[in-house]
Amino acid sequence: MKRPGTNRLSVTGCPAVSETPMVTVLMTVYNGLPFVREAIDSILGQTFEDFEFLIIDDASTDASAECVRSYRDPRIRLESNNCNMRQVGSLNRGLGLARGRYVARMDQDDISLPTRLEKQVAFLEQRLDIDVIGTWANKIDTHGRTIGRHRASVSDYGEFVGQLSLGQCGVLHPSTLFRRHVVQSAGSYDASFAPAEDYELWIRLALRRHAAYNIPEVLFLTRTHREQQTVTDGATQWRNARRAHHGLVATFCHPDHIHGISLLTLFDEHLWTQCILRGQLGSTLRAVDAMLSNMQRELNLSAVEFASLKRVWRKRLGSGVIKGAKIANWPSAIFYPVFFLLSPLLVPHMRYTLSRLIHKLRRFLFSCREVLL
Prior knowledge:
By secondary structure, this protein is an alpha/beta fold. The chain folds into 2 domains: 23-235, Spore Coat Polysaccharide Biosynthesis Protein SpsA, Chain A; 263-352, no CATH class. Helices cover 47% and strands 16% of the residues. It is built from 17 helices and 9 strands. The protein has helices at 36-44, 64-69, 86-97, 116-126, 157-165, 180-185, 197-207, 229-232, 234-252, 258-265, 271-274, 278-298, 303-317, 319-322, 324-327, 332-342, 350-372; strands at 23-29, 51-57, 76-80, 102-107, 111-112, 130-140, 146-150, 177-179, 211-223. Strands 1, 2, 3, 4, 5, 6, 7, 8 and 9 form a 9-stranded mixed sheet that branches. Strand 2 (51-57), helix 2 and strand 3 (76-80) form a beta-alpha-beta unit. Residues 3-8 have low confidence and may be disordered.
């Protein structure tokens, strides 16, 4: 997909960059070797060419900056921080320097498949009701071997906000392309929520009625390794994500019920220390019902969007939670069997046990696949 007038070449033989490119590809780099060259090559090999590639080097102590400078493609703009600003600081600096109408995120250790930008730009050009577009992805290891998949469905605003309200982030941040003015008008990234700044940003956008969508096609490869931030700072990420989720819940429910709903929606086992009595659980379930009604009203959800939101809740938490307010007054001998039958993952310790078994099964299946291939 080429924008009119962008098929000219620079003196280096590479596509020339426009003064007003349609897309700014924004990538921060901090000690990005040995993967940064593969990430850069994947962007320069895109079928869509009307972009600038803005790379913010965050005071790397390895040869990352020299690696970037070795390229002669005029679409690359290298900006170096005088001191380490961390990723959020570098991203916000990049947003201020970006010239594109759209901003495509990219991480230093990931790979964009050739048609990623072409398909994302084409989608946002046609769908003015969508502001953030992500893609499906394959998870790869340090050798580029597939070890997992990201196949989250985000098909409308109701599904997007429903996932966020359950502590999920269906849109894979480094795979996204978004309208720059929308993110900047919302205040850009909040460093106090790093490294869960993307989840918190999606919440702010959702509360402003901005929608996201995932292209149901693998257009991105996300790499997993020991040095990435989600591994080295996972505890902080989880803590800040919970804080952002807590704020979202607080927007739609009474202060007395924020903690209980947060525990329930995040499958936190502490729910059962707060809801020892059936009456306490019943009160939380009625608060959930009120919260969903408030979300429908305050976010002005259409019937289709509200159905999508409830479908997300039902799929993750089960029908017991959705119907909880109606059965909360049943005798305990009937209520608990019905509730846990309709919401089996809320049985104490059940989700933890199943998640461990599923994780082991997935690792085994991918190991078998590698042997067969």
